[in-house]
Amino acid sequence: MYHKRGMIGSPRKPDTKNQRRRSDGSQFYIVSGRKYFDKGLDELEEANNYEFSAGQRQAYKTVGGAPHLDGSYTIFGQVTSGMDVVDKIVQVETDRRWRPIEDIRIKRVRILK
User: Is 100 inside a domain boundary?
Assistant: First the structure.
């Protein structure tokens, strides 16, 4: 799995003691992302010593995502409908730590097997 648009993941805890990059059980993110060109993906590969597969490159160039997170963060789900809501959330006002000024609550989640 990789960080294409719509994927749901968990950041590692923001401390230096978390060398194994374990996920944070109380936070998650939804990738809204942007589309990339080959040059940008090449630069990320070089900077992060990571090679994207052909499928990853295709997804990042067509649907977008957050390729800089690949190999470092845990993906555990995917938005299957409602990306329009995610796009609205991206537009809300945030503080200097990129947190929304007003909390945004999820009212309903459906887990698919």
Answer: no
Here the tokens at position 49 are 């010593």
Q: Kindly report each contact of residues 42-48 with a partner whose C-beta sits within 8 Å and lies 24 or more positions away, as own/partner.
A: 44/68
Cα atoms in the 13 Å half-sphere on the side-chain side of 112: 5
Q: Look at residue 113 and tell me whether its pLDDT is greater than 90.
A: no
In a domain, 11, yes or no: yes
Going by their DSSP bridges, the two strands 74-78 and 29-30 should be labelled as unpaired
Q: Answer yes or no: is 50 within a domain.
A: yes
Q: How far apart are CA 77 and CA 72, in angstroms?
A: 16
Other beta carbons within 10 angstroms of residue 14's beta carbon come to 8
Q: How confident is the model at residue 95 (pLDDT cuts 50, 70, 90)?
A: very high
Residue 80 vs residues 41, 46, 83: alpha-carbon distances, Å: 25, 32, 8
Domain containing residue 22: 7-90
pLDDT in tens, 2-37: 999 999 998 765 555 555 555 555 678 899 999 999
